[in-house]
Specification:
Blueprint (H helix, E strand, L loop, with lengths): L1 H16 L7 E6 L2 H13 L9 E4 L5 H4 L7 E4 L15 E6 L17 E4 L20 E5 H5 L5 E6 L2 H7 L9 E4 L6 E3 L6
Parallel strand pairs: 2-3, 2-4, 4-5, 5-6
Antiparallel strand pairs: 1-7, 6-7, 8-9
């Protein structure tokens, strides 16, 4: 119980750091920023009722962690080839990923783009904090590395907007450990613990 309280306290402190309301955002701790990106990709790939797969678009300035998501989904393309695409009759969920700050050029991109968005904020957060006080922002998943912000520990997180974005994470099919509300052995049912007390 003490460990759970510490994790929840740190989660609230992280939301405070980003000026994010605990009524609008949740924090999910992961090994690092790359692991955070992988969790979001896994959740989209396992979206219920669609037989897996999702449409993935990423910005050409994307870090290799974002580019690697191509391997986790069935339809992938770079923004540079969008003009050649045809619209499928049954559209699976779509995820757009981009870096808040390019690791290559240092260019900072807009923080309000299409829905669902996965923002890799690791490079940006080394020099600038995000302000998430406006819940109308279009960001849904923000990945960060505490190592890059503070120099330690080697830990990352996903800051998740409550609502449809959080619901997709709850539908993630792979489960190999961690905190869950319910686990029925001998079945494929588990309920991911997402969120914290208000």
């Amino acid at each position: 119980m003490l460990a759970t309280k510490h994790v929840e306290d740190v989660g609230r402190e992280i939301l405070t750091l980003f000026n994010a309301s605990k009524l609008e955002w949740d924090v999910v701790f992961v090994a690092n920023a790359t692991a955070a990106i992988k969790v979001v990709a896994d959740a989209f790939n396992g979206a219920a009722g669609l037989g897996g797969g999702f449409i993935y678009r990423y910005h050409r300035d994307a870090h290799t962690s974002l580019v690697g998501v191509r391997q986790e989904e069935k339809k992938s393309w770079d923004l540079s080839c969008l003009g050649r695409l045809t619209t499928p009759k049954l559209t699976p969920p779509a995820l757009f990923a981009y870096p808040a700050q390019s690791n290559l050029t240092g260019r900072r991109l807009p923080l309000q783009w299409a829905h669902f968005t996965l923002l890799d904020a690791a490079a940006l957060l080394m020099t600038k904090l995000l302000d998430l006080q406006n819940p109308a922002t279009s960001l849904d998943y923000i990945t960060c590395s505490f190592y890059k912000i503070f120099g330690m520990p080697d830990l990352g997180a996903i800051i998740v907007k409550r609502g449809p974005a959080a619901d997709i994470l709850r539908k993630r099919k792979y489960f190999g450990g961690g905190t869950v509300n319910t686990l029925l052995t001998g079945t494929d049912y588990h309920s991911l613990k997402l969120g914290h007390p208000h």
